[in-house]
Every structure is written in structure tokens, then in C-alpha cells.
From TrEMBL:
The keyword Membrane does not apply. Binds 1 Mo-molybdopterin (Mo-MPT) cofactor per subunit. It comes from Ferrimonas marina. NCBIfam families: PRK05363.1. Its EC number is 1.8.5.-. GO terms for biological process: protein repair. Residues 106-266 form the Oxidoreductase molybdopterin-binding domain. Part of the MsrPQ system that repairs oxidized periplasmic proteins containing methionine sulfoxide residues (Met-O), using respiratory chain electrons. Thus protects these proteins from oxidative-stress damage caused by reactive species of oxygen and chlorine generated by the host defense mechanisms. MsrPQ is essential for the maintenance of envelope integrity under bleach stress, rescuing a wide series of structurally unrelated periplasmic proteins from methionine oxidation. This is Protein-methionine-sulfoxide reductase catalytic subunit MsrP. Heterodimer of a catalytic subunit (MsrP) and a heme-binding subunit (MsrQ). InterPro entries: MsrP, OxRdtase_Mopterin-bd_dom, OxRdtase_Mopterin-bd_sf. Belongs to the MsrP family. GO terms for molecular function: metal ion binding; molybdopterin cofactor binding; oxidoreductase activity, acting on a sulfur group of donors, quinone or similar compound as acceptor.
């Protein structure tokens, strides 16, 4: 990790809320409320992005945090209404707005996060215990979904390394496995293969030990100054900004240190399409689409969403490329 190469900034001068209000006024003035049927499909996504829609979401508590870091990324924040209404959370359905619609009753209290496996000091922690033990900071990170859309999100969290150090990994600990809650009664996507996209739940993810200990890897408990909404993975989720979004497992109940590389959900479902590493890489394409560029959610004009070039390691190469020295990242995709 290079020191002093990031810069700090609290927030964009124009708040997302102000932008949102403005757009609503323009839309009303133009009488555009009935947009849809007559607009070609390719144009609709960008148009809907631009118009926005006020998301109704479960109440969120403000969180205390210290400092805000961007790690070299100067992009404008994605407006909060986009961050909390365009989601991937297959436990609540495969559609981008399914999590917003179906996760609002999700119970995130009480909640216990178990840390066990190859450690000397296993434990189980409530969310309050985590917040009291580890000071939260704001991390403004790009998030690049493997589906070629992206956002810039102000997360609140703390380095995963702090929690792992407390557990005291033993000499066998080479990987870290993560597991989402399994609760079909609450999660409609876990009740049938169709709604949940054929995933074998619970959703599981994994990192190599050095990736898990990297200072950019955080456990997040909030975004935009408040606790996470359920659709973004409340009460605690992983954020690994140089990897595709699917590595950022949501609503975690267990962190398990292992000797062997753990199975991961998308790799199990389609091994030729999704690897264990899943580092953002514009030179290695998904078999069914290019990874050279991405659609930045919430940006672009009325008739076209903004497409930007995808960067190696999602723009975080100066901090993380060293982790993969000597590795062929075309094979280890
Ligand atoms: N448990 C679980 N975690 C998950 C997913 C999921 O379906 N289930 N989707 C992943 C994918 S594909 C992405 S892109 C991100 C999306 O995070 P966001 O909805 O907060 O933007 O969450 C990841 N974490
Ligand atoms: Mo994703």
C-alpha cells in the first residue's frame, strides 16, 4: 500500500438529493411521466437512470464515522437513490429492483457475525459490538459489476484485517470464506430456483488471505452516512473495490478461515464465466460480453447512458497489482 497517494474530500458540492429534485421538476415540466412504450429498449435504461425514482426504503440510522478516503479515484458519487434502488441481491429476486421491493421487511436485528475456522480466538459478534470495537471510516469506492455497469459509492466500514487480526489466524489459515444468511422464510429467492437465479444458497464467497488482509478490503455497515439498507446487504457486507461486485457478499453471518480455497457461488454456477479471483480486467472478456467498458449508473444524458473505459483492477492497480505478481491473470480470472 502506497502512503499519501490518496486525497480526501467530504462530498460532491451538489448533493444527490438536489440533482434528483431538479430532474423531477424537469420531467414534470416536460410532461414526460408517461415515457416507456414508445422509446427503444436500449435507450430506456439510460432514460430511466436519468429520470430516477424516489425509493421507499426501510428506516436507516445515522452512523458516526471519522474521515473520508478515495484512494485516488476522483469520480462523482452515484446519487444515493440509484445506489439503493439498482441492486443485485438474488436472495430477493434476480431483477435489479427486486431487492428494493422485497427486502424491506428483512430483519437485521438481532444479528451475530461468527468468526471461526483456522483461528486461535474464534468469536461471535453483534453489530453493536462491531461498531463499538472498530471505528468506522468513509471509503469512496468504485463498484464494477461483472455485468458491465458501475457506481461510485461512499461506504462506511472498517478494514477486514482488524477483525481477522483479533481472531488470530493460525499457520494453516490461507483463505477466508464468507457466508450470507440462509433464511428462506425471509428471502423469497431462497425458496425456489427460479426466483433466486438457480443459485445453491447460502451465497458464499472467498478471498486469499493476503487479499482479505489488504487495507482496501473492508467490512461495510453503512453508506451515505447511514446504516445499510437491506437491499445493499444490511447489516454487514464485504467490499473489495478492485474485484467484480459479486465478490462483495451481503448480509454476512459467518467468516471462516480455511486451508483450502473455498467454493464461491458464481464460480460454482458457471465456472467458465466467473473465476475465484474476479479481479476487474478490461482485457479478459466474459464469454458473452466485453469487459472493456462499463455503463456508469446515473450519468449520461437523456437519450444515452454514459459509457466509460474499464480500468485494470478497477483503477486500484497501484495499490493491489503486487498481490498477483507471477500469476497469469488470464488463467486466474
Ligand atoms: N448474498 C449476496 N451477495 C451479493 C449478491 C447476491 O446476489 N447475494 N450480488 C452481488 C453482486 S453481483 C453485486 S454487483 C453486488 C451489488 O451490490 P449493491 O446492490 O449494493 O450495489 O452485490 C454482490 N453481493
Ligand atoms: Mo454483479
Amino acid at each position: 500500500m502506497k502512503k499519501g497517494s490518496y486525497w480526501q474530500r467530504r462530498q460532491d458540492s451538489v448533493t444527490p438529493e438536489a440533482v434528483f429534485r431538479q430532474r423531477r421538476q424537469i420531467v414534470q415540466a416536460l410532461g414526460l411521466s408517461a415515457i416507456g412504450a414508445s422509446v427503444p429498449l436500449g435507450v430506456q435504461a439510460g432514460l430511466l437512470d436519468w429520470l430516477g425514482k424516489a425509493p421507499e426504503t426501510a428506516p436507516r440510522a445515522p452512523l458516526h464515522y471519522q474521515g473520508s478516503q478515495r484512494y485516488g479515484i476522483e469520480d462523482a458519487l452515484t446519487p444515493e437513490d440509484k445506489v439503493i434502488s439498482h441492486n443485485n441481491f438474488y436472495e430477493f429476486g434476480t431483477g435489479k429492483t427486486d431487492p428494493l421491493h422485497y427486502a424491506q421487511e428483512f430483519k437485521t436485528e438481532p444479528w451475530q457475525l461468527v468468526v471461526d475456522g483456522e483461528v486461535d480466538k474464534p468469536g461471535s459478534y453483534s453489530i453493536a459490538e462491531l461498531i463499538n470495537q472498530y471505528p468506522l471510516e468513509e471509503r469512496i469506492y468504485r463498484m464494477r459489476c461483472v455485468e458491465a455497469w458501475s457506481m461510485v459509492i461512499p461506504w462506511l466500514g472498517f478494514p477486514l484485517s482488524q477483525l481477522l487480526e483479533k481472531a488470530q489466524p493460525n499457520s494453516k489459515a490461507r483463505y477466508v470464506a464468507f457466508e450470507t444468511l440462509y433464511d428462506p422464510e425471509q428471502m423469497r429467492g431462497q425458496r425456489s430456483g427460479r426466483v433466486g437465479g438457480g443459485i445453491n444458497f447460502p451465497y458464499v464467497e472467498g478471498l486469499r488471505m493476503d487479499e482479505a488482509m489488504h487495507p482496501l478490503t473492508i467490512l461495510s455497515l453503512g453508506l451515505y452516512g447511514k446504516t445499510l439498507p437491506p437491499q445493499n446487504g444490511a447489516p454487514v457486507r464485504l467490499v473489495v473495490p478492485w474485484k467484480y461486485g459479486f465478490k462483495g457478499i451481503k448480509s454476512i453471518v459467518r467468516i471462516h478461515l480455511t486451508e483450502q480455497q473455498p467454493p464461491t457461488t458464481w464460480n460454482q454456477l458457471a465456472p467458465h464465466e466467473y473465476g475465484f479471483y474476479a479481479n476487474v480486467n478490461p482485457a479478459v472478456h466474459h464469454p458473452r460480453w466485453s469487459q472493456a467498458s462499463e455503463r456508469r449508473i446515473g450519468e449520461g444524458g437523456l437519450l444515452s447512458a454514459k459509457r466509460i473505459a474499464t480500468e485494470p483492477f478497477n483503477g486500484y492497480g497501484e495499490f493491489v497489482a503486487d498481490l498477483y505478481q507471477g500469476q497469469d491473470l488470464r488463467r486466474d480470472y
